[in-house]
Specification:
Laminin; mainly beta; five-stranded mixed beta sheet; about 240 residues; about 0% helix; three-stranded antiparallel beta sheet; 3 domains
Length: about 240
């Protein structure tokens, strides 16, 4: 996608933004602007983010648990004990057999880890075969009998099972275009869908997140929103010349 200079809208890859008309242009092809969606805010600075993206409260420590995830030790810079259930304050050692934390002659009872808050789920689109497409895309059958992802919402899936068109358009496969009255645009090529296990969110420069398959675009306030299209080019204007970042 292309992030438009108004910092409110975006266009598919290969198109240019016409902010005055509210359209995306590519030769004779014209589409209505795509409106950016808000990005998921970054976790509060006070929270501790664990390696699996789960979250522990401020002043705690992430420690592996017996299930392979993370729990929260209620002290900072803690020592995680080998039983994966308990922890000790910094500079103490774990005595699992006695259930104590030791430091010279000082002895403390074990600290018990608390569950971490799971990472927020990314609301992707689940296809009938349980494969996954990015948010704001459409599942369309492919030639192999599975599903591919059309990079626009509520799309029309074409009969060749390779292409798709925006909502309200009809597929003209022989001409390679999407028609709507006197308007036409080039066919969109579907992208492969992914197993749910491969889905990852997109990290924006300010630490906020967009869903898989989206692009981070800077908003007017200086934070980031999510363009519901992949592979965005970000354009900026300087001294009446167009630069591509």
């Amino acid at each position: 996608a292309v992030c438009c200079s108004d910092k409110l809208h975006c266009c598919p890859e290969g198109y240019t933004c016409d902010v005055s008309q509210g359209t995306c242009n590519k030769g004779k092809d014209t589409l209505a602007f795509f409106k950016k969606q808000p990005a998921t805010p970054a976790p509060a600075v006070s929270d501790v983010t664990c390696p699996d993206q789960s979250v522990c409260p401020s002043g705690s420590t992430c420690c592996l648990n017996q299930q392979g995830g993370y729990g929260c030790c209620p002290v900072p810079h803690a020592v995680c004990c080998s039983d994966k259930l308990h922890c000790c304050p910094e500079s103490y050692t774990c005595d699992v057999s006695q259930g104590t934390c030791n430091k010279g002659k000082d002895t403390l009872a074990f600290f018990k880890k608390q569950p971490a808050t799971p990472a927020p789920a990314v609301s992707d689109v689940t296809c009938p075969d349980q494969s996954v497409c990015p948010s704001a895309s459409t599942c369309c059958l492919n030639q192999q009998g599975g599903y591919g992802c059309c990079p626009v919402p509520h799309a029309v899936c074409c009969s060749d099972k390779l292409h798709c068109c925006p909502a309200g358009y009809t597929c003209d496969v022989s001409a390679g275009r999407c028609n709507k009255g006197n308007q036409f645009v080039a066919l969109f090529t579907k992208q492969p869908s992914k197993p749910a296990s491969e889905v990852r969110s997109v990290k924006c420069p300010d630490g906020s997140e967009c869903q898989s398959g989206m692009t981070c675009c800077e908003l007017q306030a200086g934070d980031y929103g999510c363009c519901p299209l992949p592979k965005v080019w970000k354009f900026r204007f300087k001294k009446k010349k167009l630069f591509r970042d």
